[in-house]
From TrEMBL:
Organism, scientific name: Bosea lathyri
Gene Ontology terms for molecular function: 5-oxoprolinase (ATP-hydrolyzing) activity
Name the record gives this protein: N-methylhydantoinase A
SUPFAM superfamilies according to UniProt: Actin-like ATPase domain
Annotated signal peptide: none
Length: 687
């Protein structure tokens, strides 16, 4: 029997999935230990191994990990002093940003403080022209003086970002190599390695984020690998990336900026896996955990991918208020609406929910760990949607008196009852998630109406039917082990690395020799990284795409080509695919305007892991194990409670009803019904 292990560390819970070669799953869920992430990691691993009755040495398959270690470092600003080396005259690049105001009418506009202060930003004489010509190479004497200044500054990490280095990285490479010899205890990265793309500020921001995280991520991943070895696990870990692939720990440690959205990306890939199994081409994944809720559009059983996202936003919903990162990532919308989202009364006396979260410590009031604020989880408990004695299968009892007290204080502030306040929280957070999903789809030219909603996460199945109702979804699908589905997603994703490089040129003037060189270098880099992760050369496939636009435009549209353009060298095919993608987004094509390629993209990926779900035993239709009063839809409504494990394939349940499992609960409102399909999914429909 072969076993594979997946661990996803989230903002509130750490999820663990152990899969055997016959498709059997053993799962567990434990609170995230933010003071030492590996403590919660191995606590959960030990628990799931004990449940399965196997030793660590029996886990001879992959060990895949998704983590928030980089995100936490950026938000909490607990990293080591980081320096930045730029072309002389550009020391203010991080402060000036791109001069874009995300809210032009706000005189009190706020941006996050740069990760690198001006005092730790150093300039050096060098210049690369836009076409890649080296106009001025760095003077070795200047590099020596620079090394002394950096050493005196106390910086422990260093990013190097020179003007136009995306076109020719030679100057960056020269300075990085020389400084590495002089500063052998400093973590160093260059923008041409991390994000070789146009737009100086975004590239500098990405490089500094990467450098800032390196002193945290590399020791963390090294400690993880060593601990796994000592515990007796057969293989070194694979790390989930934001783009939806996994790579070896060494490659991930050098590029921690690629790990920021690793957990949410894994959830989206699990949704794609089930889209294949269920034969559904289009759906919307809905992942609601303890801290945030995420939505992702799945088109043709594939998630949308973006080349730019932000971290550490001052305002969660305002694009431009954070630190831009130009690395490929699954295109998600994330909002502060999780089980731990705190409810409060604003200055106008209105009830608001989030985006602040109680996290895992102290957590919601009902966790009994000192939290006093009413949260979404507290509201669910007051409404009777979850059972205080059956949370995590009874392993974690909830403090109902503390919950009632917190909700009563909130109700008093609103001059309503505690139950009314809880019902308000439930409705507000449901509307907030639906609104975010609408915006996400509309901005991408996708009609969200009628899309099935694929719900998972610890709190997702509780709120999914309400969100689906507002989105006019045809159905809600809750898969087996839905609470730990992001961890499961890391086991069904192939080894993959997305690479980019800017090379601005009009399609009509393409130099195919240059294209061959750029794409060839990217392909070689991707194949080497996959080889380090254990992927055989013959198993690697390569996809080619590009960021394209009409000449004169500021923003690009990403297109993944159906075939490698190096084979046909037909610019007409490139134009046609771009125009089709552009029309989908904007509904029109300015056909008289020339088209240009801004950035080339290469995706190197290995084979998709084979996974067959475990066959469901034939059992008699399950009956309610009890009834309990639920106040979510009307006061004191007696609602049947089912054990999900006791439900038979083909069994239909009419709402209102509650379906419980150890790690999560599914709520069926009045007017809804659910059927258990052949894969064990709960498929709920209205009417």
């Amino acid at each position: 029997m072969t076993y594979s292990l997946a661990v996803d560390i989230g903002g509130t819970f750490t999820d663990i999935v152990l899969r055997d070669s016959k498709g059997g799953l053993s799962v567990d869920k434990t609170l995230t230990t933010h003071h030492d992430l590996l403590e919660g990691f191995f606590r959960g691993v030990d628990s799931v191994l004990a449940k399965a009755g196997v030793e660590a040495g029996a886990v001879d398959g992959v060990v895949v990990h998704a983590t928030t270690v980089v995100t936490n470092a950026l938000i909490e600003r607990k990293g080591l002093p980081t320096a930045l080396v730029v072309t002389e005259g550009f020391r203010d690049v991080l402060s000036i940003r791109n001069e874009h105001r995300y809210d032009m009418y706000d005189p009190q506009i706020e941006f996050p403080e740069p990760l690198v202060t001006r005092e730790l930003t150093f300039g050096i004489k060098e210049r690369v022209l836009a076409d890649g010509t080296i106009a001025l190479a760095p003077d070795p004497a200047d590099i020596t003086r620079l090394a002394a200044e950096i050493r005196a500054s106390g910086a422990r990490a260093l990013a190097i970002c020179f003007l136009n280095s995306f076109a020719n990285p030679a100057n960056e490479a020269q300075v990085a190599a020389a400084l590495a010899r002089e500063l052998n205890d400093v973590f160093i990265c260059t923008s041409s390695e991390v994000a070789p793309q146009i737009r100086e500020y975004q590239r500098a921001s990405t490089a500094t984020v990467n450098a800032y995280a390196m002193p945290i991520s590399q020791p963390y991943l090294k400690s993880l690998s060593e601990r796994l070895r000592v515990e007796g696990f057969a293989n070194t870990p694979l790390i989930m990336l934001s783009s939806g692939g996994v790579v070896g720990a060494e490659t991930a440690g050098k590029n921690p900026v690629r790990m920021i959205e690793s957990g949410p990306a894994a959830g989206a890939l699990a949704a794609c896996h089930y889209a294949e199994l269920l034969g559904i081409d289009r759906l919307m994944s809905f992942d609601m955990g303890g801290t945030t809720a995420k939505a992702c559009l799945i088109e043709n059983r594939t998630p949308l991918v973006t080349g730019l996202f932000e971290v550490d936003r001052r305002y969660r919903f305002k694009e431009g208020s954070g630190l831009p990162v130009t690395v490929p990532s699954i295109d998600l919308i994330e909002i502060g609406a999780g089980g731990g989202s705190i409810a409060h009364v604003d200055d106008l006396g209105l009830l608001k929910v989030g985006p602040e979260s109680a996290g895992s410590n102290p957590g919601p009031a009902c966790y009994g760990k000192g939290g006093t604020s009413a949260t979404v989880t507290d509201a669910d408990l007051v409404l009777g949607l979850i059972d205080a004695e059956n949370f995590l299968g009874g392993d974690m009892s909830l403090d109902k008196p503390a919950c009632d007290s917190a909700m009563a204080r909130l109700g008093e502030a609103l001059d309503i009852s505690a139950v009314q306040a809880a019902r308000g929280i439930y409705r507000i957070v449901t509307e907030a998630m639906a609104s975010a999903a609408r915006t996400h789809a509309t901005d991408r030219g996708v009609d969200y109406r009628g899309l099935p909603l694929f719900a998972f996460g610890g709190a997702g199945p509780l709120h999914a039917c309400g969100v689906a109702d507002l989105l006019q979804s045809t159905s809600v699908i809750v898969p087996p082990q839905s609470s730990v589905l992001s961890a499961f997603g890391t086991l069904v994703t192939p080894i993959r690395l997305d690479l980019v490089r800017s090379d601005l040129t009009q399609i009509g003037r393409l130099d195919w020799t240059r294209v061959d060189r750029v794409l060839g270098d990217l392909e070689a880099e991707g194949r080497a990284a996959l080889g380090e992760s254990g992927c055989a050369p013959g198993d690697v496939t390569v996809l080619v795409g590009a960021d394209m636009r009409y000449v004169g435009q500021q923003h690009e549209v990403t297109v993944i080509f159906e075939t490698d353009p190096r084979q046909s060298r037909d610019v007409g095919v490139l134009s046609a695919q771009f125009e089709a993608a552009y029309r989908t987004l904007y509904g029109v094509n300015p056909s008289h305007v020339p088209i240009e390629i801004v950035t080339w993209r290469v995706v190197a990926r290995g084979p998709s892991p084979h996974f067959d779900g475990q066959a469901r035993p034939q059992i008699a239709p399950g009956k309610p194990k009890r009834h309990r009063p639920v106040h979510a839809w009307q006061d004191g409504q007696s609602v049947p409670v089912y054990d999900r494990a006791a439900l038979a394939t083909g069994q239909t349940i009419a709402g209102p009803a509650i379906i419980e499992e150890r790690e999560t609960t599914t709520a069926l409102p009045p007017g809804w019904s659910a059927t258990i399909d052949a894969l064990g999914c709960i498929v709920a429909t209205k009417g």
